[in-house]
Specification:
250 residues, mainly alpha, 11 helices, elongated
Length: 250
């Protein structure tokens, strides 16, 4: 079981790293352009052409160096950073669902649990055929689908793992950071990144937390790279703790 769980966390970490690399993509392009312009500038200086109006690249070099703070480009960077939060929430939900599915299948093969064994599921013959009549390998997906479990809601996640697997993840600052990210993901996707009443209510009990401790109605969300890394770290810590708890219970 540990091997399967390790694969899930490794995949999640690769996805998180891809988000972090996305945040640095502009820096990579920026560094490439600066290096190229500096090389050209040195050549011009060597030939006393660096101040020639038709040859100078000083203005372009200064603009590239300040590109992150350039007013015309700043909104585009902010959209990219906000979308990094959306990606993290999606990757996290996928990882939690994979853990739930694998753990339930493992539990069923070992005799199940009281809650699982008494669960009633309505299935069609087509559904059974689609899984080759193999319930043990598909029970997790069936439960998640039939019981409409949301893996983008921390209360739903905690309830599902407690009910079916006997382990309830502890609510701490990591959970609160994730709740904040999930709420903001909804705002970014559905309301253009503007904080609405629903978001305020959703995070009202998500304290203490390290990210956006104060949100106000109609505030436009603007995430920083440090905040995104904090969210990613909280998600990784949560998954690690979840795996430790499952390994003890299964």
């Amino acid at each position: 079981m540990k091997q399967g769980f390790n694969q899930i966390i490794q995949t999640f970490q690769k996805n998180v790293d891809s988000v972090y690399n996305l945040m640095k993509f502009d820096e990579i392009i920026q560094a490439f352009c600066i290096t190229a312009l500096q090389r050209v500038n040195k050549f011009l200086e060597k030939h006393d052409l660096s101040n020639h109006p038709s040859c100078s690249v000083q203005k372009e070099l200064q603009q590239i160096e300040k590109i992150r703070s350039h007013k015309s480009l700043r909104p585009h960077y902010q959209i990219m950073l906000n979308q990094c939060v959306v990606l993290l929430v999606s990757y996290f939900a996928s990882a939690v669902e994979d853990l739930f599915v694998d753990a339930l299948s493992f539990t069923l093969k070992r005799g199940g649990s009281e809650k699982l064994n008494k669960e009633e599921l309505k299935l069609t013959i087509d559904e059974l055929q689609a899984m080759n009549f193999n319930l043990s390998d598909n029970i997790g997906e069936l439960i998640a689908t039939k019981k409409d479990i949301s893996f983008q809601d921390m209360k739903n996640i905690a309830r599902a793992f407690k009910s079916y697997l006997g382990f309830e993840p502890h609510k701490d600052k990591n959970v609160n950071n994730i709740i904040l990210a999930q709420a903001c993901r909804h705002a970014i996707v559905h309301s253009g990144g503007v904080v609405k009443d629903r978001i305020i209510k959703q995070v009202s009990h998500a304290t203490p937390r390290q990210v956006k401790q104060d949100l106000s109605l109609n505030q436009r969300l603007s995430f920083t790279t440090d905040e995104i890394r904090t969210i990613g770290a909280s998600m990784t810590n949560y998954l690690d703790n979840l795996i430790q708890g499952l390994n003890k219970n299964l």
